[in-house]
Specification:
This protein is α/β, with parallel strands linked by helices. It is 55% helix and 7% strand. The chain folds into two domains: 161 residues, no CATH class; 173 residues, Rossmann fold. This is ATP-binding protein.
């Protein structure tokens, strides 16, 4: 089922264009449009300045072609340096490279390339639209029309992607390549496979004390999947407990939003603090009791069992009895042991 439809896109666009952001807040979709308008302006304004100079101070023929071509060419060179710089001009020592200090998880270069090409289209649109306003020419019109067609799909993709990100309810923005905490190689492999090969019904347990990066890692993982237009949701454990007593079909806060049980990936954060607080504050038996309430219990268990879930836990070795541990909760829900993945981010455990 597609939750973000064309109707939702137009409704979000209407919300972003009409009204003042001073009282409604700035959405990710609005920020993306403002960013692209900035790229358009950075093509338009320098082209106007250069065209004025070339047409009044020089004898150069066809300034309406040269001005946008030069400005767009400069932006292309800038974006090439901006994109290829980290790859071609890496000044780190070989030892640092071997230690993998730059990236723990490598960036999605294909996605970054697509974003760069989108920006270049808007730079070019600004440059050649300015040229057409100054002096009409057929070559400038042809290039402008080609760029206008090329930018249609990227605009649709990125606007819909920003809706997936903002409807997920993340507490902050972070890509997986920005995550800089310590992690063991086998745990890194688990995370990479979880992102690249998402399979329904996988439950990832992130253990670690305060400051180990477990919340930021969970958000980074989900962000990568949101960018692929998966329906992801972020909730704290206490908030989710209250949601176990409702069955909202759609959430009306923003166009195209979804309820927790419609998510392809659910982050359950702040289950327990960990670190020096050894005992679980939210016990597994209480969680299951509220999950399996008389009215919505079967419904809750069915959806929680079949969706991908990231459980942001505390200490891995809790002192509770076996029947009070979270492994027993998964068995009660009907989650197979083979679908439970474990990652420990505790600095004491990570070498």
């Amino acid at each position: 089922m597609r939750f973000i439809t064309r109707k939702d896109l137009f409704q979000q666009l209407k919300n972003d264009l009409i009204g003042k952001d001073a009282y409604r807040g700035v959405t990710l979709t609005y920020s993306w449009m403002a960013n692209q308008f900035g790229h358009f302006s950075l093509g338009f304004i320098p082209t106007f300045i250069l065209y004025t100079f070339l047409s009044t101070k020089t004898e150069l023929s066809r300034p309406e072609i040269w001005a946008p071509a030069i400005i767009w060419g400069c932006w292309i060179l800038f974006e090439l340096y901006n994109f290829l710089g980290p790859l071609l001009f890496n000044v780190n020592s070989k030892k640092q490279d071997l230690q993998n200090e730059d990236y723990i998880f490598h960036p999605e270069w294909g996605n970054i390339t697509f974003d760069t090409l989108t920006d270049l289209c808007f730079f070019g649109l600004g440059a050649f639209s300015c040229s057409l306003l100054c002096t009409y020419s057929l070559p400038a019109m042809v290039i402008f029309l080609i760029l206008s067609v090329l930018v249609i799909y990227p605009s649709y993709y990125w606007y819909a992607t920003k809706m997936h990100l903002q409807n997920a309810g993340y507490p902050f923005q972070i890509r997986l390549s920005q995550w800089k905490f310590k992690i063991q190689d086998q745990d890194k492999a688990i995370i990479t496979d979880f992102v690249k090969n998402p399979q329904s019904g996988k439950h990832l347990l992130l253990f670690g004390s305060k400051g180990s990066g477990k919340t930021s890692l969970s958000v980074a993982i989900a962000t990568e999947l949101s960018i692929k237009n998966n329906r992801c949701s972020y909730v704290t454990a206490t908030k989710l407990l209250s949601m176990f007593f409702e069955k909202a079909e759609r959430v009306g806060l923003s166009p195209g939003s979804w309820a927790w049980h419609d998510s392809s990936l659910l982050i359950i954060d702040d289950i327990n603090p960990g670190g020096q607080i050894k005992k679980d504050i939210l016990r597994a038996p209480l969680f299951y009791e509220l999950l399996d309430n008389p009215e919505y219990g079967p419904f809750n268990k069915e959806y929680l069992r079949k969706m991908n879930t990231i459980w942001v836990m505390g200490n891995e070795e809790a002192p509770e009895q076996l029947e009070e541990r979270w492994e027993n909760l998964f068995k009660q829900i009907g989650i197979d042991e083979s679908n439970v993945l474990r990652v420990n981010l505790d600095p004491v455990m990570v070498k």
